[in-house]
Amino acid sequence: MSVQIGMAAALEQFSPRESIELAALSEQHGFSGQMAADHFQPWVPQQGEASFVWSVLASLAENTAGDLGPGVTCPSFRLHPAMVAQAAATLEATYPGRTWLGIGSGEALNEHVIGGYWPEAPERVRRMFEALEIIRKLFSGKDVKHSGEFFKLHTTRLWTLPDTPPPVLIASAAPYTSRKTGELADGLITPGASIEKLAGILDNFAQGADSMPKLLQVHLSWAPTDEEALANAIDQWPNGGMKFPKADIRSPFDFAQMAKLVRAEDFEGRMVISSDPDVHRESLQRYVDAGFNRIYIHNVGRNQKEWIEVFGREVLPKLRG
To answer: Among 16-25, 204-213, 227-236, which stretch is predicted with the lowest mean pLDDT?
Structure first.
């Protein structure tokens, strides 16, 4: 199995221009693509950014040569699935063969801003799969309409289409969603977790399809010293140490209050924090061995250039598929 290591472009943390510069630098050091975050707000105020992912993806594509896509966008609240289909089709028509569409069921942090009702998780998942149905219809290039449980679409079509639609990948970390993803989507996206939990996700995904792409997003903290790596995690990515569901929290300022309770031990088993590149390499290798063939890495600190250079030299060349 060949493995590709890309970079997770944290648009909730870095400005569009800086994200583009970092993406170009990462390719020079061996990273193979970009998974761009879709946020209307950052997790915590100190992250400080939240640019429009589709604008940034076009600029990323123009300044890099690898694969790219949103990791992930929600097609069922803030954006109607027809708009997501149009955006994804346009991006793939402009950069053929390079893009993919990652979708998820959404988080209140980003989706509540339109002022609508925020349902519980099972309904959000049903909305996502109905949105996928609309996106598939529009990708056909035919005149289509839709009247479902959550969405309506009057007769229309996408007028700008790529030769081949981009693959649709679904974010999943639960048994039901993983299994349905294998049945209905073109691949899986899931966040880094324990090997045991990830094995369960892959097993459920395989019940629907085993040969599709399996993308993993990994948050980690590297710095020249362990103390700096931990300080970066606590300051910039305290959400990584929060051991509870976060999909219903609406404000970065609420997250900031919760972040005051995060301690070093809260990251254990959830995110690798180390100054030793070999510790990170060993962790990433375990994910590769578990069956993930595309991994997108996010170093949570602001020391991005130094991290890209170190990992490009000491980590990526030593990973084995």
So the answer is: 204-213
